[in-house]
Amino acid sequence: MASLTRLFTFLTLAALAVSLPAFAEGTHDRTQFGHDIVVGSNDEAGEVTCFGCSVRVRGKVDSDITTFGGSIVIEADGQVGGDTTVFGGNLSLDNGATVRDVTIFGGKIRRDPGASVSGDVTTFAGGAALWLFLIFGFPFIILAGLIALIIWLVRRFSRPAMPVAV
């Protein structure tokens, strides 16, 4: 019975893994983990998300671009229709680049005078490591402290009574 459950789970996951690229191709969204994303000059993408990698845009992105631990470069004639958000990286806007709103946590912006930003530019400058720690690391420390407290309380109140010597 256990082997049938494992086989069913494996086949379900395999079918899901095979079908995901078909859905991604229809929406033109691009998501990568550790591999850079390049939107070519004749390409058009929906939403671009990158974890531990960078994004280079030469064409058009209809929605948002978000990177975690990577940089974004919008080259000449590159367009972003949504928000451009960088966590722990830098943003470079070349001459002729067009973006809407820009938000940078723990990085810098290099903006050519010929680049166009139609919305707000928000930067939380400083060390990238500090911002990444505050955003991602601090909640884990709080969670680890709560787990340690629960373990300590369980051990404290579940100890057997010690016999008293008379």
The helicity comes to 25-40%
Overall pLDDT metric: 81
Find the count of extended strands (DSSP E, 2+ residues): 16
Low-confidence segments, given as residue ranges, are none
* Main sheet: strand order: 1-4-7-10-13-16
Query: Biggest sheet, in brief?
Result: 6 strands, parallel
Classify the beta-strand content into a percent band: 25-35%
Overall shape: it is: elongated
* Cα separation of the termini: 58 Å
Oligomeric state of this protein = single chain
Structural class: alpha/beta
Number of helices in the DSSP assignment: 2
Report the radius of gyration as a whole number of Å: 24 Å
Domains (count): 2
What is the ordering of alpha helices and beta strands?
Answer: HEEEEEEEEEEEEEEEEH
Task: Provide a descriptive summary of the structure in words.
It is a single chain. The chain has 166 residues and is α/β, with parallel strands linked by helices. The chain has 2 domains: 23-126; 127-159. The protein has 2 helices and 16 strands. The chain has helices spanning 2-27, 128-157, and strands at 30-33, 37-39, 44-45, 48-51, 55-57, 60-61, 65-68, 72-74, 79-80, 84-87, 91-93, 98-99, 102-105, 109-111, 116-117, 121-124. It has a 6-stranded parallel beta sheet. It has a 5-stranded parallel beta sheet with strand order 2-5-8-11-14, with no helix packed on it. The radius of gyration is 24 Å and the shape is elongated. The model has no long low-confidence stretch (mean pLDDT 81).
